[in-house]
């Protein structure tokens, strides 16, 4: 049987909750990453410097039927700290992409991205029946490439001169993927990394 097209859903982990994105998340999202050029550097389009500008981006994303967008909620604070989406969805061919992802700078290199991807990739393979999950990023975005590689995704190649950046320059796009039969091993590594992060944080407390 073919895979199932994803619908808005809430997925809950220890550190984050991933829930359907809505305008109600706007204030938290602006507090997390509004006006931060480094957060928006690779997102396409100008940095939103006001809640209204970020709201326009949010509204545009919600209106695009090709995406299933999620807010990422930091459970300890109860606040939205970024968003992410399922995109390029093709249930007939059992594949989708996770992308258009950003988090406030305070949550970079934390458990937030690791657990968010653990929840979304797991849902795609284990509940939706997908056979392939892909991720992509600008070839200059080394931080993103390293984060994707840490998920256990395989670097597949580069599409040269693939997309024009907002400043008019051309980006090459680096593609990564995970396949369903690779997921159990990757999942175990991600779960172990989350445990290690928690243990390291406990040991670092005075």
From TrEMBL:
SUPFAM superfamilies: Acyl-CoA N-acyltransferases (Nat)
Enzyme class label: transferase
Domain (N-acetyltransferase) ranges: 16-181
Recorded superkingdom: Bacteria
EC number: 2.-.-.-
Keywords: Transferase
Keyword Iron: no
UniProt protein name: GNAT family protein
Alphabetical list of InterPro entries matching this protein: Acyl_CoA_acyltransferase, GNAT_dom
A GO molecular-function annotation: transferase activity
Keyword Transferase: yes
